[in-house]
Amino acid sequence: MSRIGKNPVIVPDGVTVEVKGQDVKVKGKLGELTLTVHEAVSVKLEEGGKQVVLAPLSEERKLRMLWPTFRNHIKNMVVGVSEGYTKNLDIQGVGYRANLQGSTLVLQLGYSHDIQYAVPSDIKVAVDKQTKISISGIDKQKVGQVAAEIISYRPPEPYKGKGIRYEGQQILRKEGKKK
Q: Name one GO cellular component term (predicted).
């Protein structure tokens, strides 16, 4: 039995969860998210809408793996609509900087041209001091995906440490050439 899957998802005050068949709809102060749960996992709302309980419909290995996965997806939705998610990025390197022009993030990363990244409509991006980027939204997967796409334009390199990295990320540095 899954240690993660057997725990119910606690719904905090200010968040409402609706379950219709396999569709789960979560509403909160920050927005609304929906998810369609796999047909091999049952979803129930218990204790007057204060807990979401999931259970596998059979004991197949694949279905036992899906059960805690969907439980965590629902938990992430509940946290997202009540608190939201944020990823912070640091830009390091001489001449590397970022600007926000409308809904486009303009990155100057040492290439011959500026990189223009169109920010999705449900994600908020803020630039502080031209070297700090803050990405926030209610969907954990989308926030992480946007952060990963921005980092992929110039990942940190191991010799000088230049590039875009997550805030607080340690880069394993290599020693350069020796004479």
A: cytosolic large ribosomal subunit
